[in-house]
Amino acid sequence: MGMFDPIKGFGVTFSTMFKKTVTEQYPEDFRATAPRYHGRHQLNRHPDGLEKCVGCELCAWACPADAIFVEGGDNTEDERYSPGERYGKDYQINYLRCIGCGLCIEACPTRSLTMVNFYELADDDRQRLIYTKEDLLAPLLPGMEQPPHPMRLGDNEQDYYTKGPQLAREALPASGQSGQSKEAGQ
Predict the structure, then answer these.
(1) Number of structural domains found in the chain
(2) Where in the sequence is the domain holding 85, given as residue range(s)?
(3) Tens of pLDDT, residues 165-182
């Protein structure tokens, strides 16, 4: 150990003492996150408003922290929530346990579960940190009806997935079509 090593260490301290401090005004000056930031989970929908979640419970099995609870239910002709035979009847994510690893996203076969950029998940009430299906479900597009509704994009599940995206684009409101036609023309 050299005689001047403590002085070198204090040199870092002295060099930062006279620099201007940077203070972020967090609640007032909200900075956007990186586009690929993984924050709160979201249950996605098909373009016609039906839920993508089929209640397979693979996300719950993949979660190492046991933070996800899924209970599947059967669709009927009167009440249809997803294009398949089943849907996620009860869906909960406990953010007191969630470690944000993203394994649930990788396990989802229908890409119904994703993570959005929202990161403000702190709360002083433990019960509000258990997000239910209603909290996680993506909002409907403007002009879409509330589920449950009949499967509009095809006669069966196979038609829904093969012909569905084209029929869904045709069924979108006029404002959605004008934006897509501009992108297609470029």
Answers:
(1) 1
(2) 34-138
(3) 565 556 555 444 444 443
